[in-house]
Amino acid sequence: MIASIFNNFNNPGLFWMILDAVLLLTIMVMVVVIIMENQDPIKTLSWILILFLVPIGGIILYIYFGVNPKKRKMIILKEMADRMSLDRLTREQMILLNEKIFIRNPKLTIKRHLMKLLLNNSKALITEHNKIRVLNNGRQTFGSIIYELENARDHIHLEFYIIDDDQIGNRIKEILMRKALAGVDVKVLYDDLGSWSLSRRYIRELTSSGVKVMNFMPVKTYAFANKLNFRLHRKIIVVDGRIAFVGGINIADRYLRGLGHNTRWRDTHLRLEGDSVTSLQAIFLLDWNFAWNTSDYDQKYFPEHNVTQELLVQIVASGPDSDWESIMQAYFAAIATANRYVYISTPYFLPNQSILTALKTAALSGIEIKLLLPERNDSWMVWRSSRSYVKELLEAGVHVYFYLKGFTHSKLMIVDDVFSSVGTANMDIRSFNQDFEANALIYDEGIAKELRLDFEDDIENSKEVILELWEQRRMLDKIQESVARMFSPLL
């Protein structure tokens, strides 16, 4: 048959007819595969549309970005769950919640459903004794990180989406090398795609000093195409099992200096002590052992602490290996059950239908919803897609603000002065089900009020979008936003 096809090269009409038939058959098979994956209907229709509009390009895009590994469970959680006795601890904590043992502040009772949700959907243990320091922007965050790294005695565990070979990247590298040479156990895990530009020299200098370095799910050839779309977006540091950091800041100069001239980078990070450090340590070890194909859960990584302050925290991890979209479900439940207000800051706003409906329903119900977005974005496609949701949010009564004093990258939610979320997950589809994320959910009046004051300060440096003026923007802008939104499920 192959020989007969080549023999017909002198008959271009027949050749192209055969080629069209093969391409059509390929597309039809892929359409069946996409439908059988039972993904979100909008995402399914988007992929089918692009396959028919741009057949060859659509096939390539789907191979690299559309393959869904959930059914193959890229990471097996059972071993970690068994080792940490999560099933038993989860059941015990559910009983305690039902008996209201954990909740001594009556104002927190209304958020008990969130604690139960996260125990059920991600086995996110409730940690009771914690200290939290809110860190604003790069200078404060890196100052605190560098201080703790310098004082590490036993081990440093560092996991980031982006590590750049720049000024702050080399400052961190120098500390890690020096600590490793002094006998501290140093492990560095970075995302292969996010840190694509990280030089071999940088890594070689780390490893030659005794630092253990590993990239997460390396993308090298087409054989790894299914890994390209599922990235390690977490930013976690654990020092001696006693102090941990989590939030929106990666290791790169732009988190200190901004994107350009007179443009600052606005971000939020957390420094934690106490029980919650154990949860972040467990997440790091799970990722590390997967990357190295090892099983290292040494008890020394989980030392006793002396924090007695009562402050409830749940560390929630989610990713393509999860059975549930746990962080998205937490966002949804927090919005849907708010009593007074919901304040959200996110750099990338590409909500699924559930989150969009929750926001509009809450606003129509009289809940004060404020959504803070960057006026300009570092991604044209995401920027345009995000703006396509503004009109319907305004019509429902949501207050939308564009941040003017630089680029706001904080991933923040505050609800009713009793609940807050800070972490790595954006309010977008990618963070909900494609990337590996980690958030700290905090049930505390003091932290919620502190974050609210910071949020209100950001609002002072923003402009509120007015529906009447928004509808008057250029037709070209509206067209670009609509087109970008059509393709946003594929991002």
Architecture overview:
By secondary structure, the protein is α/β, with parallel strands linked by helices. It has 3 domains: 2-66, no CATH class; 78-100 and 129-309, 2-Layer Sandwich (Endonuclease, Chain A), CATH 3.30.870; 326-490, Endonuclease Chain A (Endonuclease, Chain A, 2-Layer Sandwich), CATH 3.30.870. It has helices at 2-7, 12-36, 41-53, 55-66, 78-83, 86-98, 112-122, 137-150, 167-181, 200-208, 225-228, 254-257, 275-292, 326-336, 353-364, 380-387, 390-396, 429-433, 445-460, 467-470, 475-487; strands at 126-136, 155-160, 185-191, 212-216, 236-239, 243-247, 265-266, 268-274, 310-318, 341-345, 349-350, 368-374, 399-403, 407-408, 412-415, 419-423, 427-428, 437-443, 462-464. The longest helix is centred in the first third of the chain and has 25 residues, at 12-36. It is globular, with a radius of gyration of 24 Å. The model is unreliable at 69-86 and 222-226 (pLDDT under 50).
What percentage of residues falls in helices of 4 or more residues? 40-55%
Number of strands: 19
Number of domains: 3
Oligomeric status = single chain
Global morphology = globular
Query: Beta-strand percentage?
Result: 15-25%
Would you state the CATH class of the largest domain?
A: Alpha Beta
Instruction: Name the CATH superfamily classification of the largest domain.
Output: Endonuclease Chain A
- Unreliable residue stretches: 69-86, 222-226
